[in-house]
Design goal:
This protein is an alpha+beta fold. Helices cover about 40% and strands about 15% of the residues. It has one domain: Phenylalanyl-trna Synthetase, Chain B, domain 3 (Phenylalanyl-tRNA Synthetase, Chain B, domain 3), CATH 3.50.40.
């Protein structure tokens, strides 16, 4: 597991902001019956009343507070765990999609910590957090869009690869051809390090189990 960097200007405003990452050998393949069982169990545990109370738990609430500090309304731009739970309520359960999406869902719902996956082969150095540059390209594709003005981004040494708590850059997402993923999670004030480490470990473990079972 690796510690990312945080731009000094960002760190001066958000002293407890951290980024952690880990690389795993994995493919986005069909999920397993065992993982689908975990999704069904989570669906049963998070029914209407439990889902409504979720935002009051310490970790989801910490992310909601941070969202407001960076200019995001958490009732419009949902935190990762709230977005998944809202989808569960609308669909009647957590739907199984593939090994990556299922592993991310389990890790996020169990810990409250958002986890994202990038194609590790497309990375250039360590990941970190900084403010997006004016007219900066979002990703390295020729027709890549520009980074939203003023938003914090996750970047490697070559440029922005994700908007913080937002979209991943084109050309950096996991595809069927991906053989190595870089999982990353963001820690904010009020979120214990153990929760972030558990989220990354749980997601990586599920992906490793699924890889070895194929």
């Amino acid at each position: 597991m690796h510690d990312g960097w945080v731009d000094p200007g960002v760190a001066s405003e958000f002293s407890e902001l951290r980024l952690r990452s880990v690389d795993v050998d994995a493919r986005a393949i069909r999920s397993s019956p065992e993982v689908r069982d975990q999704l069904r169990e989570l669906s049963d545990r998070l029914r209407g009343p439990q889902a409504v109370m979720l935002r009051r738990r310490p970790v989801p609430e910490a992310y909601r507070i941070f969202f407001r500090h960076i200019g995001l309304d958490p009732d419009i731009v949902r935190t990762p765990v709230e977005a998944l739970v809202l989808e569960r309520l609308r669909a009647g359960g957590f739907a199984s999609r593939n090994s990556l999406d299922d592993a991310l869902t389990v890790a996020i719902v169990e810990t409250g910590v958002g986890v994202w996956a990038l194609d590790a082969e497309q990375m250039n150095g360590r990941l970190g957090i900084r403010v997006g540059a004016r007219d900066e390209r979002f990703g390295r594709e020729r027709d890549a869009p520009t980074v939203p003005d003023g938003r914090l981004v996750v970047a490697d040494e070559a440029g922005a690869v994700a908007v913080l708590f937002g979209e991943l850059a084109p050309g950096h997402c996991v595809t069927k051809r991906t053989v190595r993923m870089r999982l990353f999670a963001v820690q904010v004030a009020g979120v214990p390090s153990i929760h972030v480490e558990e989220a990354l470990w749980r997601c990586g473990q599920l992906l490793e189990i699924l890889r070895c079972s194929t």
